[in-house]
Design the sequence.
């Protein structure tokens, strides 16, 4: 089947991994508690989730973002992607657990290693493409004292993951991590551009960049005439950005996001 669109792909820094300029976040595949979206939602059943993944693939998306803290998202993806794993670049995380409605964090080497092994089982794969530390906001402490990055580097040498980094929450942490990671995930939306210096630094070093919260967890959708197109155009104009990750379980939203990402990556103003 021909794709509905041909989404451009970009190299993710020096990792050698090529990702679609739009990635699909999957928190809504597995968790509906303690999330910061402006509206409630119902976790899709397997039929709806599989249809959304099929649509994402038809749209040219090859990047999926998940995490242990996203409830049963990892395990569901492992089941739903069976037989089609080779198409997807999967990004997961370590360091945050969500249990009984509460998040807890553990960045110790033991937990990082155990988390990666568990993600391999849940996702039913022999190697994880991307593993990021799921920061609690204490970026510099995690980077310098936890041993988490060193453990991920060991796991990479062992062939259990292809690339690693951290999903940062501070500019100082991002600047410190840029030289020690294969890639970072950083926030950027039209209401918060404070992390641009981190992205600039990553571009200088050849460190890959994934963008989170490009639509401010859905809150940006109420702003402006076309907030999606405006945000995507601004972000994807930066050549240091590999992909922006947007979570949705609405097929129409996914199509609209893909169209906006394609136009932004190709420099099409839509006029």
Sequence:
């Amino acid at each position: 089947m021909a794709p509905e669109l041909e989404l451009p792909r970009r190299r993710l820094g020096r990792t050698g991994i090529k990702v679609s300029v739009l990635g699909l976040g999957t928190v809504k595949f597995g968790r509906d508690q303690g999330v910061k979206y402006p509206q409630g939602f119902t976790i899709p059943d397997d039929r709806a989730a599989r249809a959304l993944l099929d649509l994402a693939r038809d749209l040219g998306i090859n990047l999926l973002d998940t995490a242990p803290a996203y409830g049963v998202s990892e395990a569901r993806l492992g089941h739903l992607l069976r037989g089609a794993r080779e198409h997807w670049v999967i990004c997961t995380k370590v360091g945050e657990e969500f249990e009984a409605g509460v998040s807890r964090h553990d960045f110790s080497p033991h937990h990082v290693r155990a988390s990666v092994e568990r993600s391999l089982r849940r996702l039913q794969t022999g190697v994880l493409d991307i593993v990021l530390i799921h920061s609690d906001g204490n970026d510099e402490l995690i980077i310098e004292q936890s041993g988490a990055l060193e453990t991920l580097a060991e796991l990479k040498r062992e062939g259990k993951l292809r690339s690693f980094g951290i999903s940062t929450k501070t500019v100082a942490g991002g600047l410190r991590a840029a030289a020690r990671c294969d890639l970072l995930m950083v926030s950027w939306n039209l209401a918060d551009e404070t992390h641009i210096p981190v992205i600039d630094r990553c571009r200088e070093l050849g460190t890959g960049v994934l963008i989170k919260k490009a639509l401010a967890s859905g809150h940006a959708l109420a702003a402006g005439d076309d907030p999606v197109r405006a945000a995507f155009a601004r972000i994807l104009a930066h050549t240091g950005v590999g992909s922006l990750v947007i979570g949705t379980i609405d097929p129409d939203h996914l199509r609209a996001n893909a169209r906006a990402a394609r136009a932004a990556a190709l420099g099409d103003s839509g006029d």
Observations:
- The chain has a mean pLDDT of 93.
- The first helix runs from residue 46 to 58.
- The two ends are 30 Å apart (CA to CA).
- Residues 130 and 163 are 5 Å apart (CA to CA).
